[in-house]
């Protein structure tokens, strides 16, 4: 279950992904499979090759891409999530979603 974002933020992420940009969307999230995570960052891009190449620099395997038909993405959690957000200067995501690891 995703929550804590606006429709405008979601639509912006979808537009950027569709244009072939690497785009980030962080939101609160509850999933019993990941009891230590309270939010996730979706790193998406319509261009699967570009997304796989991008993920490689952070140790992400292309097999981990969620092949959502319209919005393929990696789900970033934990230390990798914080590392990527810091790398891109997305400190506002870290603060807003209390990602102090």
What report would you give on this structure?
- This protein has 101 residues and is of the alpha+beta class.
- The chain has one domain.
- The chain is built from four helices and four strands.
- The chain has a four-stranded antiparallel sheet with strand order 1-2-3-4.
- The radius of gyration is 13 Å and the shape is globular.
- This is YneQ.
- It comes from Metabacillus litoralis.
Sum up the structure in keywords.
101 residues; single chain; YneQ; 4-stranded antiparallel beta sheet
SS field, number of helical segments: 4
How would you state the average pLDDT, rounded?
93
Identify low-pLDDT runs.
Answer: none
Q: Structural class per helix/strand content?
A: alpha+beta
* Biggest β-sheet strands, sense, barrel: 4 strands, antiparallel
Protein name: YneQ
Organism: Metabacillus litoralis
In short:
This is YneQ. It comes from Metabacillus litoralis. With 101 residues, the protein is α+β, with helices and mostly antiparallel strands.
Architecture blueprint of SSEs:
Elements: E1 2-3, H1 7-18, E2 23-29, E3 39-44, H2 48-56, E4 73-76, H3 78-87, H4 91-96
Antiparallel strand pairs: 1-2, 2-3, 3-4
